[in-house]
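Notes from hallway chat w/ T.B., transcribed later so I don't forget. T.B. wanted the structure written out for a chain they're using in a teaching module, and asked if we could keep both sequence and C-alpha cells in one place. Agreed to drop them here.
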Amino acid sequence: EDAMNILAKLPLIASYIYRKTYKNDEHIPPDPNLDWGGNFAHMVGIEDEKFKELMRLYLVIHSDHEGGNVSAHTTHLVGSTLSDAYYALSAGMNGLAGPLHGLANQEVLRWIMEVKEDLGGVPGKEQLVKYLWDTLNAGKVVPGYGHAVLRQTDPRYMAQREFALKHLPDDEIFKVVSAIYEVAPDILKEHGKAKNPWPNVDAHSGCLLLHYGVTEYDFYTVFFG
C-alpha cells in the first residue's frame, strides 16, 4: 500500500518541484482523466500529445533497473532491513545526488552538443570517427556508452531511438545521437578497453527532453528519479 501511494504521488511531487523552481511557483492541478505519465506531462506544463507519449515511455523504461545501479541497489538494500517503503525510496533518491549517477544523461547531452559545436553541425562519418578517436586517445570516455551488466545495446536506448525516428527524425541533436550510434561501437571495440561498447539508456534520453522544451538540465535527475 505504501509503494502504491508513493507511485501515485510522485508525479505531483516532481511537477510541483519543477513549477516552483522554474515557473514562478505557478502550479497546474492534476487532470483525473489522464493516465500517470500523461498527467505528469500536463502538470509540468507541456501539453504536446507527443510529449505525453514520451513520458509514458520514459517513466516506464527508467523504472526498469532491477538492482544494478546505485539508486535501485540502495533502495533494495534499505528495504531488506524491513524499513518502510518511504525510507527505502528516499535512501535511493539520495544516491542520485552523486554526479556519477544522477548527472548521467545531462553529461551525455552536454557532450553531444559539444560534438555538434566543435564539428560545425551534424558531423559526417569521417569527422566523427576522428573526433571519437581523439577523445579516446586523450584518455577520455565516450559518454553514454557502456553498462555494468549488459553486453549489447540497451533495449531502453532502442525504445527511445524508435520514438525519435517516429516523432523527431529531423531534430539535429537526434541526428548527432544517431550518427554516434553508427560509429562508436566499432571504435570502442577496436580501442579494446570498454567491456561493453554499446549505448545505454542515458545516451539518448537527454535529447528527447530537450526537443520538447525541457531546457532545465538540473531537473533531468528528477525525471530519472
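Follow-up for T.B.: The chain has two domains: 1-101, 103-218. Might be a good example for the class.
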